[in-house]
Amino acid sequence: QVQLVESGGGLVQPGGSLRLSCAASGYRFRIPRMGWYRQAPGKHRELVATILSGGGTNYSDSVKGRFTISRDNTKNTVYLQMNSLKPEDTAVYYCNANFDRDYWGQGTQVTVSS
Length: 114
Description:
Layout: E1 3-7, E2 10-12, E3 18-25, E4 33-39, E5 46-52, E6 57-59, E7 67-72, E8 77-82, E9 91-98, E10 102-104, E11 108-112
Parallel strand pairs: 2-11
Antiparallel strand pairs: 1-3, 3-8, 4-5, 4-9, 5-6, 7-8, 9-10, 9-11
């Protein structure tokens, strides 16, 4: 049974930074694709960024240049460094792992407010 455990959310002021982490357990091999999605109140879940096991990345236009996704393949762990945070980045952030199907973490709240 694959489990994803996220950490690192919290409250930050506009312009601040946060780093999210997500560790996958229950799968012995390198996960082909991992990523982060987010869902704000009243909105659909949307892509933030994904990263392939070979290092290829994809970002939504709204976070390009501010967020950086990375991973440690030896630990099946993915990170999201979020800089220059804006109030519109406020959402629950979900970790995703994709191989035979999509797996999701429980979500971590990120609130950007003064």
